[in-house]
Amino acid sequence: MDPPHEVHVAAICGSLRDDSRTRTALRVALDAAEAAGAETTLVDLREYDLPPIDADDGDAGDAPALRQAVAEADAVLLGTPNYHGSFSAPLKNALDYCGRDEFGGTTVGLLEVAGGSFPTRPLEHLRTVCRTLNAWTLPHEVGMPNSASTVRDGEIVDDRVAARVAELGETAVRYAGVDRYPELVAGADEGALEPTVGD
């Protein structure tokens, strides 16, 4: 079932590295989203001035622009490298500048890139944050292990991983704005996903 409105998918890259495998993966997901008919935006945190958040100054730097980019999206992909078993500080800082006004009712897809064995904790931690923000978190998520061999020269070279990343982008389009369209939750199509709030 096609989404009943024009879809905008944004992806926030939680890696600041110039040669970021997380950014590579998010671009693959966004390409798939675009192929599925969505307008897409990569929110590259290298381009945002976001000092460590101070609760007394929630509009510091480019925080208003970040919040606008998130608020305008029907679906948001959150991508992070694995840092000490959790998601990255730049992504956490960016999320701390946002709130339920930006994320509430928004479809969110999760992607995590690890240098070592199969990742789990960062995705769990992000899912908890999204639940707190009242976002709709997609059941389909992507954990990319052994990224040094999975991503080379700006491309995902493992076909199975590439397919899962592309599916994340496609699924984000399919269920974008799900909070506003109960028929998507009810599963109007045979075999449709049935997301649960904050799950």
From TrEMBL:
<dbReference type="InterPro" id="IPR029039">
    <property type="entry name" value="Flavoprotein-like_sf"/>
</dbReference>
<protein>
    <submittedName>
        <fullName>NADPH-dependent FMN reductase</fullName>
        <ecNumber>1.-.-.-</ecNumber>
    </submittedName>
</protein>
<comment type="similarity">
    <text>Belongs to the SsuE family. Isf subfamily.</text>
</comment>
<feature type="domain" description="NADPH-dependent FMN reductase-like">
    <location>
        <begin position="8"/>
        <end position="147"/>
    </location>
</feature>
<dbReference type="InterPro" id="IPR005025">
    <property type="entry name" value="FMN_Rdtase-like_dom"/>
</dbReference>
<dbReference type="Pfam" id="PF03358">
    <property type="entry name" value="FMN_red"/>
</dbReference>
<dbReference type="GO" id="GO:0016491">
    <property type="term" value="F:oxidoreductase activity"/>
</dbReference>
<keyword id="KW-0560">Oxidoreductase</keyword>
<dbReference type="InterPro" id="IPR050712">
    <property type="entry name" value="NAD(P)H-dep_reductase"/>
</dbReference>
